[in-house]
Amino acid sequence: MKKIIALLSLMASPALAHSGHATLPGPAGHAEMHIAMAAAAIAVAWLVFAAVVRRKSTRNKE
Hints:
- By secondary structure, the protein is mostly helical.
- The chain has one domain.
- Helix content is 79%, strand content 0%.
- It is built from two helices and no strands.
- Helix 1 (2-17) runs antiparallel to helix 2 (29-61).
- The protein starts with a helix and ends with a helix.
- Keywords: Membrane, Signal, Transmembrane, Transmembrane helix.
- The chain crosses the membrane at residues 33-53.
- Residues 1-17 form the signal peptide.
């Protein structure tokens, strides 16, 4: 499951980062925005993973 989450987060970040996305100010703003969007995609993927794990553990207790 962790491998799937890692793969999905890596696949999602370039898709989120293009097609007219905002950039941060400065000469490195475009690259910095890619890093920020990748970090956000990874964080969302881990939150989804944690919710799925919590839901499975709750079902197992019942």
